[in-house]
Structure formats: C-alpha cells, structure tokens
Amino acid sequence: MSASAPHSSPWSVINKVIAIVLAVGAAYFPITFVLGGIKASYNLRHPQPAVQASAIPTASPAIATPASEASPEASSAPAGDGLTAQMAEGQKTYMLVCFACHQPTGLGMPNMFPPLAGSDWVIAPKPDRIIRNVLHGMTGPISINGKPFATAAPLMPPQGAALSDKQIADVLTYVRNSWGNKASAVTPEEVKAIRDVEKARTAMWTEAELLKIADR
Ligand code: HEC
Asked: Which residue's CA lies nearest to atom 43 of ligand 1?
C-alpha cells in the first residue's frame, strides 16, 4: 500500500517507454508502406467493379449499361413467376439509374425530385406517358396528384439510349408495384411500340405534351 517505492528512477521507465514507442513507430511506417504498395498494385491489377456500381448515377449511358450485364445469374430467375423476375430486374435498374433522384423509398426529394410512391403518373392504368418520360426525359413544371410540384430546375434526363426496352419495362413494372403502388406490369413490347412511334423525337417531354397521351 505504500505510495511510492520505486525500484528504478521514474526517468528510466519513461526512457524505456520512449524507446519502445520509437521502435514500434520506426517499424510501423515501412510495414504500412510496403503493405500499401502491395494493396495498390493488387487493386490496379484487379479493378473492383463494386466501386463503379456504387458511383452516384448521373443517368448517363455509361453508368446505366452495366445493369444488363451486372448479374449473369439473373437470367436464370425462377420461370413461371414473371412479375417476381421483372421486379427483381427492375429494382436493379432503379438502384443504378433512378434512385439518386427519386430515392430508394420512391419518395423523391422535396422541391427537387417528385415522388413516384402514390403518384398518379406512375399508377395510371396505361404506362404510355411514363414510358415516354423515361425514353426521352421530361422538363418544365409538373403536378403530382393535381398538386403543383415546386422545383427550381425541373429536368429528368432521357434514358432511351441507355436502357433497353426490357430494362425500361422492368424498371417501370418495379416502380408501379413498389412502395404501396399497384398497377399492371409493363412489357418490353409496349416499350418497343412507343419507342418506334416516337423514334423521330429528340426533345424532352413537357407535362402539357404528355397529358395529350391517353393513359387509360
Ligand atoms: C437526375 C434526376 C432524375 C433521374 C435520374 C430520374 N428522374 Fe424521374 N424525374 C425527375 C424529375 C426532376 C422529374 C420531374 C420532371 C419535370 O418536372 O418536368 C421526374 C419525373 C418522373 C416521373 C413522373 C412524375 C412522378 O413523380 O411520377 C416518373 C414516373 C419518373 N420520373 C420515373 C423515373 C424513372 C423510372 C427513372 C429511372 C429510369 C427516373 N425517373 C430517373 C428526376 C429524375
């Protein structure tokens, strides 16, 4: 219990500690340097696809394309349940291309990106407007469920060049049947038919133009 009965002077203890810290430090840097070099050259030789997939989608063709190649096993999805397979494929495209704006929740972002959950555009009986929306993009003011959606720079980039008919059909089937939405599945044939009808179109759609297209 005696407070201090030093066997050696406190300084010699401190010197030992300093010596150990210096030795460990001296060894630590070359080791991390060597390990870092090995890791860096390994990464160079084995580029990580995961890094690209997690990049924020800018809705550019370069980013959208991997969706079709991302998972070879997807083609062996259980036959017989077409909707389940379409939903799974559609979710992949959604999480590559659409989620950055409309959010994984489908709720969008106030004053920036309109919601897809509960939107009258999305759950319309016929998908003819939203197929056009995804193919060529959309700009200008928009109302969701009759209420003007305020956004400073309303613009949805076109995806027609980046996504196949099947990818658009699957992603729209996904948004029409997620977050409480319930509507018919969209087929690649429907997308192709509209792509053909509108093949001369390059401009983005406006709400006024889309409202002229029957959606029921
Ligand atoms: C860069 C952001 C962005 C991306 C990416 C994007 N959207 Fe949009 N989307 C918008 C904006 C902004 C609007 C409203 C456009 C307007 O006001 O003219 C919109 C409108 C819509 C609408 C109609 C309005 C509504 O809320 O129901 C649908 C449907 C839609 N987007 C689906 C999609 C799908 C599916 C994808 C992926 C294939 C996608 N969007 C990718 C920004 C985006």
From this structure: 156
Pick from 96, 98, 186 the residue to mutate for probing ligand 1's pocket: most ligand atoms within 8 Å of its CB.
98
Going by the DSSP 8-state scheme, the letter that residue 204 receives in this structure is P
Q: How confident is the model at residue 81 (pLDDT cuts 50, 70, 90)?
A: confident
Q: Could you tell me the pTM of the whole model?
A: 0.70
Cβ-count burial 140-158 (b if 16+ within 10 Å, e if not): eebebeeeebebeebebbb
Pocket of ligand 1 (CB under 6 A): 59, 97-98, 100-102, 113-116, 119, 121-122, 130, 133-134, 138-140, 142, 144, 151, 154-157, 159, 171, 175
Higher pLDDT, 62 or 163: 163
How far does residue 11's CA lie from ligand 1's centre (Å)? 70
* Arithmetic mean of pLDDT over the chain: 78
Output 65 or 191, whichever has higher pLDDT: 191
Are the C-beta atoms of residues 134 and 168 closer than 8 Å to each other? yes
